[in-house]
Design brief:
about 40% helix; globular; disordered N terminus; 9-stranded mixed β-sheet
C-alpha cells in the first residue's frame, strides 16, 4: 500500500515476525549447520539444549533484522557474514588453543606482528569451507530492492517486535548468571552468541570486589622458616635459569630413529642434578610471559588475562627482588623486542636490574620470531662473564617457538618423509636445535669460569604439542606407544643442575610452576617469611598437588596418583579422572576435595593480583589477612 504526501511516496510495510523468519530461513539453515560443525568439532557430541539455544538466538536476530531494517535482504546477508566470520574465528582458535576465544584477546593483537608466521599457521585450510557460501549467497540474492519509497512501519510490526526482543534479551542475558561458574558452561548450554555476549560482559564489568574474607591468603603464607633437604647446597652461587620454549617432559631421554632428541638436557638431568619428572605448566593466555610470572612470584596466572599486559603496575614479592636484597645482580635475556608482551615495563616491578632484549643485543642471526638461540646463548655468556657476581639470570629461548620453522642447515634430525612437514616433525627439529645450542652454552660457561660456581636451572615454559589437535594426538601417541593425554602434554622439564654436588635424584612428586620459587630458596639456603607464596618447596614436600586452569577448565588438578579434568559444561558429574600411571578411570567422587582446593588456591591468587594487595600484605598494613582460614 502506498501513500502520497508532501511530494513523497510512502509505503506501509506489513511484515510480521513469521514473514521475516520465512525470508531468512536459508540464512538460518546455513548458520545453524556451521554452528553444529563447530560444536561437533569442539565437543564431539551435540546436546539438544545447545541446538535449541542457538536456534532461538539466531531466529530472534534474523527476525529483528527483517522487522527493523529498511532492506531486510541486505540485513540478513550482513548478519550471515558476521555469524560465519565469528564461527570461522572460533573454530580456528579452538583448534589451535583448545578453548574458545575471548574479547580480552583483542588486547593481544599488537603481538601478532612479532609472531605472524605462527598466527597465520593457526588457520586450518578446511575451515575456509565455512566461508565458501558467502560469495554464492551474494550472487544469488543480490537483487534490486522492490521499492525505494520510505516506509511507515505498521502496528503489526511494532507489536511483533516486543515478544521477539523479549526472547532475545532472555537468551543473551540469562547466561550472565552462569558467568562466574564457567564460561564453557555458557557455551555448551546457551550457544555461541550467548558465550560471546557473556564474555564481553564479564570482560567489561565482572570485577571482583575487595572482600578480606576472599582476598586473604588463607593457608598460603610463606612457611620457609626452616631448613629442608639439600638446604643451601647452591648457597652463594650464581643462578642461571634457562627457560626452554615449548619443551615438554617426554623429550627427556627420548630418541628418534636411534638419535637422542635432547642429548644435552638428558646429560644434565642425570648428573649433579635434581630432576622433577612430573612438573606441570600452569600458564594462562600469556603463555611464556605467564611462565616467567609464575616462577618469579609463586602466584597463579590470571587465566584469560595477561598479567604482564594488564597488571604491570602492581606490587609484587618476587624471586629476583628477593635476591637483589641479598646482593645479587639480576638480568633477563630475550631475543625479541623489549615491548613484546610488555616485558620491559613489567620487569620494573619484578626486581630486574638489566633486560637484554633485541634492541640491546646484536641481531647477527635471526630465526623465526627473533634472535636464534645459538646467538642468544653466545651473547649471554659474554655478558655474564663481565657481570658482578653473584647474579641471577633468566635466559628465554625463542627458536623452538611454534610454528617450529628451521633453516635447512639446522635440521639435524633425519625425520621420516611422512612426518617431515607435520607439526610433530618440525617440533623435533626445533627442540633438537635448541638443545645443541644449550650444549654449546654450557661449554661457554665452563670456558669463562662460570660453570662450577653456578646453579643451572633448565625448565620448560609450556607445551608445544597439545592433544586437542587431532594430528598431534595421533602422531605423538604412535611415537610414545601410549595414548597421548593432556596430563602428558602439560608436563614440562625441570632440572636443577648443581655442578660438583654429586646429586643424582629424580623426584616424581607432582609439582607446578608456582612451586619453583620456594624450591630455589631452599637450594640457595635462604629463609624468608616476608612475602606470600602459593607454592611449596617440592624437594621436601611429601605430597604433590597442582591446581590447573586455562588449558583445562578451572577446578582441574593433578596429584601424585590421579589427574582430574573438570567438565567443560560446568557439571561436576560429567568430569573425567584417571590414574596417571595406568590411565585407569577414577571415580570422580574421590576428586571433590581436590576440585575445591584447586579453585580456592587459584581464586585467592588471582584476587590478590586483581586488587593489588600484595604490597600492603608484605608491608604489614593488612596483617589481619595473614590468619589462616
Amino acid at each position: 500500500m502506498e501513500l502520497r504526501g508532501a511530494g513523497k511516496d510512502y509505503s506501509i510495510t506489513g511484515r510480521t515476525p513469521l514473514t521475516a523468519m520465512s525470508d531468512a530461513s536459508i540464512y538460518l539453515l546455513l548458520v545453524m549447520l556451521k554452528t553444529l560443525v563447530f560444536y561437533i568439532f569442539s565437543s564431539g557430541v551435540v546436546a539438544p539444549v545447545f541446538i535449541f539455544s542457538n536456534l532461538v538466538v539466531y531466529l530472534t536476530i534474523f527476525t529483528l533484522c527483517g522487522l527493523l531494517a529498511q532492506n531486510p535482504r541486505k540485513a540478513y546477508f550482513i548478519a550471515h557474514i558476521a555469524f560465519s566470520a565469528l564461527i570461522f574465528i572460533d573454530i580456528n582458535y579452538y583448534a589451535y588453543y583448545g578453548f574458545l576465544p575471548s574479547i580480552r584477546d583483542v588486547s593481544l593483537l599488537s603481538q601478532v606482528g612479532a609472531v605472524r608466521e605462527s598466527f597465520l599457521g593457526a588457520f586450518r585450510p578446511l575451515s575456509f569451507l565455512l566461508l565458501v557460501d558467502i560469495p554464492v549467497m551474494a550472487i544469488f540474492y543480490r537483487k534490486p530492492h522492490s521499492s525505494t519509497a520510505p516506509k511507515i512501519r505498521s502496528t503489526v510490526v511494532a507489536s511483533g517486535l516486543k515478544p521477539v526482543i523479549a526472547v532475545f534479551l532472555i537468551m543473551v542475558l540469562f547466561p550472565l548468571f552462569a558467568v562466574n561458574l564457567n564460561m564453557d558452561y555458557v557455551y555448551t548450554r546457551f550457544g555461541v552468541i550467548a558465550y560471546h555476549f557473556s564474555d564481553l560482559y564479564d570482560s567489561l564489568f565482572n570485577r571482583p570486589a575487595v572482600n578480606p574474607e576472599q582476598v586473604g591468603p588463607g593457608g598460603y603464607v610463606n612457611e620457609l622458616a626452616k631448613e629442608g633437604r639439600y638446604f643451601g647446597i647452591a648457597q652463594s652461587r650464581n643462578v642461571i635459569l634457562v627457560q626452554l620454549e615449548s619443551f615438554q617432559a617426554f623429550l627427556v631421554g627420548a630418541e628418534y630413529a636411534g638419535v637422542e632428541i635432547t642429548p644435552n638436557l638428558n646429560h644434565l638431568a642425570k648428573n649433579d642434578s635434581v630432576h622433577f619428572s612430573r612438573y606441570y605448566q600452569q600458564v594462562g593466555i600469556g603463555n611464556t610471559s605467564d611462565a616467567e610470572f609464575i616462577i618469579h612470584n609463586s602466584m597463579h596466572s590470571m587465566g584469560r588475562v595477561s598479567v604482564y599486559r594488564q597488571f604491570s603496575g602492581g606490587s609484587y614479592y618476587t624471586l629476583p627482588g628477593l635476591l637483589k636484597n641479598h646482593d645479587y645482580t639480576t638480568l633477563v635475556f630475550h631475543g625479541n623486542k623489549g615491548d613484546f608482551w610488555n616485558r620491559k615495563k613489567m620487569y620494573e616491578s619484578q626486581g630486574i636490574d638489566e633486560f637484554f632484549c633485541l634492541e640491546r643485543l646484536e641481531p647477527d642471526e635471526m630465526i623465526a620470531i627473533g634472535l636464534s638461540d645459538g646467538a642468544l646463548f653466545r651473547q649471554a655468556a659474554e655478558i655474564l662473564s663481565n657481570v658482578r657476581q653473584p647474579f641471577y639470570s633468566l635466559i628465554i629461548t625463542l627458536t623452538s617457538h611454534v610454528p617450529y620453522t628451521m633453516p635447512p642447515e639446522y635440521e639435524f634430525l633425519a625425520i621420516e618423509e611422512e612426518l617431515r612437514e607435520t607439526q610433530f616433525g618440525k617440533y623435533l627439529q626445533a627442540v633438537h636445535y635448541t638443545d645443541r645450542a644449550l650444549g654449546e652454552f654450557i661449554e661457554l660457561l665452563k670456558s669463562r669460569d662460570l660453570y662450577e660456581n653456578s646453579l643451572i636451572v633448565l625448565l620448560g615454559d609450556h607445551a608445544g604439542l597439545y592433544p586437542h589437535n587431532e594430528d598431534n594426538a595421533e602422531i605423538v601417541s604412535d611415537y610414545l606407544g601410549r595414548y597421548y593425554t593432556i596430563d602428558e602434554a602439560m608436563r614440562i622439564p625441570l632440572v636443577f643442575h648443581v655442578p660438583g654436588s654429586g646429586i643424582n635424584e629424580e623426584i616424581e612428586t607432582a609439582s607446578g610452576q608456582i612451586d619453583f620459587f620456594p624450591t630455589v630458596l631452599n637450594l640457595l639456603g635462604l629463609v624468608e617469611q616476608s612475602g606470600l607464596l602459593f607454592g611449596r618447596d617440592m624437594i621436601n614436600e611429601e605430597q604433590g598437588f597442582v591446581a590447573l586452569q586455562h588449558i583445562v577448565p578451572l577446578g582441574s588438578f593433578v596429584d601424585d596418583e590421579k589427574f582430574f579434568m573438570m567438565s567443560r559444561d560446568g557439571v561436576f558429574k560429567n568430569s573425567l579422572a584417571w590414574k596417571v600411571a595406568t590411565l585407569e578411570p577414577v571415580c570422580i567422587s574421590e576428586c571433590v576435595d581436590g576440585y575445591y582446593r584447586a579453585i580456592d588456591q587459584i581464586r585467592r591468587s588471582q584476587l590478590m593480583i586483581n586488587t593489588d594487595l600484595i604490597g600492603e600484605l608484605i608491608s604489614g598494613n593488612i596483617s589481619e589477612l595473614l590468619v589462616s582460614d
